Amino acid sequence: MRSCCSAQHASVVRYNAYASEQRGLDMHHDDSDVTLNVCLGRNFTGATLSFCGGFGKEDHRKHVHTYSHAVGRGIIHLGSHRHGADDIVSGERYNLIVWSTGTYR
Hints:
Blueprint: E1 5-16, E2 25-28, E3 34-41, E4 44-46, E5 49-54, E6 65-67, E7 74-78, E8 81-85, E9 88-102
């Protein structure tokens, strides 16, 4: 079986409401073709994901959608889709992030 993905990278990020810890992540695009973002757990409020348009597109700085994480659920998006993690308000959140790049035919 041949894979369409030439590279993958996975990491876990943690957001915490304590002032000294990472509360969110500024708007950016990923160095991937496709990104999977899965909420692994903990109790939290806030910490939504904000999405704009695609990198290099006319609407790349225009807000188009806000996604609310729920434990055990995930979202898949293009790596070039501009997005950011809004600040967590209370609690703690862990997310599995998987980047994939490759040749798709």
